[in-house]
């Protein structure tokens, strides 16, 4: 379906090349046209579609066939809109969530719809994996935060992998567009099978787990070309077969962090923390080398690869999934308050109410979220009223407290001092969450851009095409000049 342009959307000033960003999250997806000049980047959303897990073949899976159909519909819409403006699409970049994969056989066929990380199948694989690979050894090589759904635990549940390759979701989409099999490095770094220092596959871990050494395709870096469109795909979407698919930060957080408006100088970049706030919250720092200490492992921080070889030193926390699942439950019960009204009512409640641990595994699977939150509070000996405003405030307070704790831990573990916190993604529109984050951290919070992931995706494509140049500092300067940002100062009296 076509969408109404957002506040960021603009008509092109002049005809020329544009870039198509395929940006898919765990609950929705979009195809966006990005236009880049020497002073700004603008976005036009041409197609939006829902995404979500489905019960299929005995588990929670992604309907990849439907997802890919939406990608093609979005690219066709992008081609049509670009053509109406006399523009041509220079390239396509793809980003999605991390860790999940599809298995493809030698004939290029997907053997089954990919499992979702929300399926519980990998829980039983954790102990057997750790018997073969000591957790301290795993962390010392991969620097990856322990999460039971990490790719290596999912793969440990698979059987008969000979002759198959695992393609992470953005790489799977790129394969069906181009016929080329590659693994983009920022997403590879989330698998638990990637060497954080060497920047290569940890093939010894594959061997230790009895997995084929060539299970994943070769690595590719953001900015490199994956391939050109297959003729049948090009004909279907109305684009030339010469249209390239370019690797971007295919882990959506990598693209989002590339678009953090962190200031014009490298010195500024050393003093910021970021929160990529959406279904999940990715909270951390940008570093030039991984932190692989035992203290870092004990704190469950991850070292994931970013654009231009940076390290995204972060903790993966619970996010606005908690609220969206509550809204889904309330809607099923016939109660559908507007989000703005819900947040206003929550903001009007006094501080100091009950909180939960948003990282609790009890909140991973879809179910009656309001009751699970209230049950968790009851277990602490507290009481949470059964009304949407109180539950929403509990979620917001819990996330903000978690953000403050995580940023303080990151400062300590990486020996950094943070002056400003940048919140990007959907959560940057949530004024209550932004203000509570400023209050709990005691730091200035800068909110925006909302579509940071798509902006980062487009900027990497534009640089690869030679339309802009420079490193992350130069890319971020374009973000600052292109977006209205909101600033929140700590109000300690609110705590």
UniProtKB/TrEMBL annotation:
UniProt keyword terms in alphabetical order: ATP-binding, Disulfide bond, Kinase, Nucleotide-binding, Rhamnose metabolism, Transferase
Domain Carbohydrate kinase FGGY N-terminal, residue spans: 20-257
Ion transport among keywords: no
Alphabetical list of InterPro entries matching this protein: ATPase_NBD, FGGY_C, FGGY_N, Rhamnulokinase
Span of domain Carbohydrate kinase FGGY C-terminal: 273-465
Superkingdom of origin organism: Bacteria
Similarity section: Belongs to the FGGY kinase family.
Name used for this protein in its record: Rhamnulokinase
């Amino acid at each position: 379906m076509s969408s109404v342009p957002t506040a960021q959307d603009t008509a092109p000033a002049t005809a020329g090349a544009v870039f198509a960003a395929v940006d898919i999250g765990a609950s929705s997806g979009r195809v966006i046209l990005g236009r880049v000049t020497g002073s700004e980047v603008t976005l036009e959303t041409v197609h939006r579609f829902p995404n979500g897990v489905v019960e299929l073949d005995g588990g929670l899976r992604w309907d990849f066939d439907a997802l890919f159909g939406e990608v093609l519909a979005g690219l066709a819409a992008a081609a049509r809109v670009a053509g109406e403006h006399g523009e041509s699409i220079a390239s396509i970049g793809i980003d999605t969530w991390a860790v999940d994969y599809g298995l493809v056989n030698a004939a290029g066929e997907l053997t089954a719809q990919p499992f979702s990380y929300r399926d519980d199948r990998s829980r039983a694989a954790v102990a057997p994996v750790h018997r073969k690979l000591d957790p301290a050894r795993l962390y010392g090589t991969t620097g990856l935060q322990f999460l039971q759904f990490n790719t290596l635990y999912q793969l440990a549940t698979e059987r008969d992998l000979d002759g198959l390759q695992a393609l992470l979701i953005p790489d799977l989409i790129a394969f069906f567009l181009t016929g080329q099999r590659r693994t983009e490095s920022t997403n590879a770094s989330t698998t638990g099978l990637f060497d954080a220092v060497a920047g290569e596959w940890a093939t010894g871990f594959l061997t230790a787990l009895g997995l084929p050494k060539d299970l994943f395709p070769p690595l590719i870096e953001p900015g490199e070309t994956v391939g050109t469109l297959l003729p049948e795909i090009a004909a279907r979407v109305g684009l030339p077969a010469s249209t390239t698919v370019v690797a971007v930060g295919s882990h959506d957080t990598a693209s989002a962090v590339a678009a953090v408006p962190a200031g014009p100088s490298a010195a500024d970049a050393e003093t910021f923390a970021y929160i990529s706030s959406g279904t999940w919250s990715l909270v951390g720092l940008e570093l030039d080398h991984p932190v692989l200490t035992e203290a870092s492992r004990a704190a469950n921080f991850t070292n994931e690869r970013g654009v231009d070889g940076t390290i995204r030193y972060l903790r993966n926390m619970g996010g606005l999934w908690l609220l969206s699942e509550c809204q889904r439950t309330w809607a099923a019960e016939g109660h559908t308050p507007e989000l703005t009204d819900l947040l206003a009512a929550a903001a009007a409640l006094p501080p100091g109410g009950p909180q939960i641990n948003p990282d609790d595994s009890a909140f991973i699977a879809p179910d009656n979220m309001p009751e699970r939150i209230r049950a968790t509070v009851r277990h602490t000996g507290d009481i949470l009223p059964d009304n949407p405003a109180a539950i929403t405030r509990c979620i917001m307070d819990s996330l903000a407290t978690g953000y403050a704790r995580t940023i303080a831990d990151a400062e300590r573990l990486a020996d950094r001092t943070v002056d400003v916190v940048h919140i990007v993604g959907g959560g940057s529109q949530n004024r209550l969450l932004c203000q509570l984050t400023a209050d709990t951290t005691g730091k200035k919070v800068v909110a925006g851009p909302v579509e940071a992931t798509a902006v980062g995706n487009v900027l990497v494509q534009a640089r690869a095409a030679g339309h802009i140049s420079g490193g992350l500092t130069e890319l971020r300067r374009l973000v600052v000049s292109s977006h209205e940002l909101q600033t929140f100062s700590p109000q300690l009296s609110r705590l």
